[in-house]
């Protein structure tokens, strides 16, 4: 807090015997500035930051910190509330106005709701009360890293990078797995072999197919996609191979099949595992002979298109069972690209979220942001429906949100259930940034209901903030409308 008397700062008590709940993911070379005049705390924080993969800068005064912020590309600041030579809150305000994406974590031994509120008003994204455990610092740094990634991506998307149809703008993702996939795509795009794209539903297989097409020499030619699982067998045949006039009732004029209509572009056969066996035989012949015979035609027609196929099914097992032709499998599987599930590349979640929010901003004109709590749950949730599920979650949240901040309350039920489950599994629920006089509810599973804990948390926070419901909603990480709805549910809307 401003104007506080100088007092010795307690050294963090590191709970070294206890493993951290989650390790901090590699922060992709991010720069962390640690500002604290207490050399023991500063040193300890630097060591932890370094072990978490950050590039470390350290300072013990406001002036020195300001100089570092001006000269270095700092991503995250761990800032003590009382530093000699000026006000930390003023520094926070100046730093955030010069670098709006800077993520600042305030540390203090004298936490009060008032100082937490003021820090948040000045743009701090998190709050750490001394003495804190190693585990807490790791978690706060992990959150800050995700917040920073999200802010940077949102800015990159807002400003546009001029690479509108490049691979990186089509396929969002910066994890090692996605970088490797991008390199493979760039390589296979240069050839004309068939490619088999494998991965769970919603991982982005069709997008990968488009990226292969866009990266190839015939990017300006057609990209025609067909979902083999969505068409009845007779339609697949006419869709893929075409027909001549009078080939069957209703064929009043000839129609090219997709393999011919794509010309020297690309045909993408989605859900290839659903292709009936007789169609597999015809497709194999088309691939081998590079020609097709439309239904009712006496002469074959040349095929120049490149074939890409995708499936989320286990094709080798289908080959074993005799439901997928082995020779077609080998033909399609000359090269395969495997798209990893989202849970194996969690660090792409903030990037993808920022990407979908930017799209919503263009549609609605609202500059949406995700609350830290929502971002944390999104990062930890397993996303069985992969990127598609994330995309839908964000679209839904924007559609029902009454303001620009998307909170847990706007996320789909499955994420709320996930949060409730993880909260139930743990022993402590912190209801607000860890400030001394904000209630931290210790929960024994089965004794107090989540609803009761939630009610206590809301009431305590409003009380501590002298009735400031808006700020209470912010501190609790829920929307204002949700807070009012909950108060109504408790029958105390006039509190
Ligand atoms: N890396 C990504 N970057 C941006 N958007 C993505 C990414 N991956 C997937 N998406 C989006 O997620 C949705 C699902 O992707 P897509 O249809 O390509 O998945 P799929 O693996 O083909 O799914 P299915 O197996 O169900 O056909 C699409 O809206 C797509 O644009």
TrEMBL record:
UniProt entry keywords in alphabetical sequence: ATP-binding, Nucleotide-binding, Phosphoprotein, Transcription, Transcription regulation
A Pfam family of this chain: AAA_lid_14
Cross-referenced InterPro entries: AAA+_ATPase, AAA_lid_NorR, CheY-like_superfamily, Homeodomain-like_sf, HTH_Fis, P-loop_NTPase, Sig_transdc_resp-reg_receiver, Sigma_54_int
Recorded coiled-coil stretches: none
Superkingdom of the organism of origin: Bacteria
Modified residues (4-aspartylphosphate): 80
Stretches assigned to the Sigma-54 factor interaction domain: 171-399
GO MF entry, a single one: ATP binding
Domain Response regulatory: 31-145
Region called Disordered, residue ranges: 1-20
GO BP annotations, alphabetical order: phosphorelay signal transduction system; regulation of DNA-templated transcription
The protein, known as: Sigma-54-dependent Fis family transcriptional regulator
Source organism per UniProt: Terriglobus albidus
Organism phylogeny: Bacteria, Pseudomonadati, Acidobacteriota, Terriglobia, Terriglobales
């Amino acid at each position: 807090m401003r104007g506080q008397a100088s007092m010795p700062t307690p050294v963090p008590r590191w709970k070294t015997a206890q493993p951290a709940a989650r390790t901090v993911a590699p922060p992709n070379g991010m720069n962390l500035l640690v500002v604290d005049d207490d050399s023991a705390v500063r040193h300890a924080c630097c060591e932890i930051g370094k072990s978490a993969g950050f590039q470390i800068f350290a300072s013990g005064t406001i002036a020195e910190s300001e100089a570092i912020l001006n000269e270095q590309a700092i991503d995250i600041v761990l800032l003590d509330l009382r530093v000699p030579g000026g006000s930390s809150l003023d520094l926070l305000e100046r730093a955030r106005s010069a670098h709006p994406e800077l993520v600042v974590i305030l540390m203090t031994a004298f936490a009060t709701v008032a100082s937490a509120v003021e820090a948040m008003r000045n743009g701090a994204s998190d709050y750490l009360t001394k003495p804190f455990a190693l585990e807490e610092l790791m978690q706060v740094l992990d959150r800050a890293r995700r917040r920073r990634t999200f802010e940077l991506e949102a800015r990159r998307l807002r400003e546009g990078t001029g690479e509108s149809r490049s691979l990186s703008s089509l396929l969002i993702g910066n994890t090692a797995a996605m970088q490797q996939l991008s390199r493979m795509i760039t390589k296979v795009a240069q050839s004309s072999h068939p490619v088999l794209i494998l991965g769970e539903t919603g991982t982005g297989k069709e997008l990968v197919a488009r990226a292969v097409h866009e990266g190839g020499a015939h990017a300006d030619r057609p990209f025609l996609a067909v979902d083999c699982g969505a068409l009845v067998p007779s339609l697949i045949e006419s869709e893929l191979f075409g027909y001549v006039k009078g080939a069957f009732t209703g064929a009043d004029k000839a129609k090219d099949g997709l393999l011919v209509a794509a010309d020297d572009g690309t045909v993408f056969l989605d859900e290839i595992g659903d292709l009936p066996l007789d169609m597999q035989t015809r497709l194999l012949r088309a691939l081998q002979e590079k020609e097709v015979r439309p239904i009712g035609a006496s002469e074959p027609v040349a095929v120049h298109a490149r074939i890409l196929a995708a499936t989320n099914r286990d094709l080798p097992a289908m080959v074993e069972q005799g439901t997928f032709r082995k020779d077609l499998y080998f033909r399609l599987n000359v090269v395969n690209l495997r798209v990893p599930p989202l849970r194996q590349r969690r660090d792409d979640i903030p990037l993808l979220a920022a990407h979908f929010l930017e799209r919503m901003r263009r549609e609605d004109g609202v500059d949406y942001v995700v609350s830290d709590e929502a971002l944390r749950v999104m990062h930890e949730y397993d996303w069985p429906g992969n990127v598609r599920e994330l995309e839908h979650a964000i679209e839904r949240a924007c559609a029902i949100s009454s303001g620009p901040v998307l909170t847990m309350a706007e996320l789909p039920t499955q994420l709320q259930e996930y949060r409730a489950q993880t909260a139930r599994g743990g022993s402590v629920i912190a209801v607000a940034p860890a400030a001394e006089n904000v209630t931290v509810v210790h929960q024994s599973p089965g004794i107090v209901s989540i609803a009761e804990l939630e009610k206590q948390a809301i009431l305590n926070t409003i009380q501590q903030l002298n009735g400031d419901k808006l700020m209470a909603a912010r501190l609790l990480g829920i929307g204002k409308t949700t807070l009012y709805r909950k108060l109504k549910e408790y029958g105390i809307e006039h509190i």
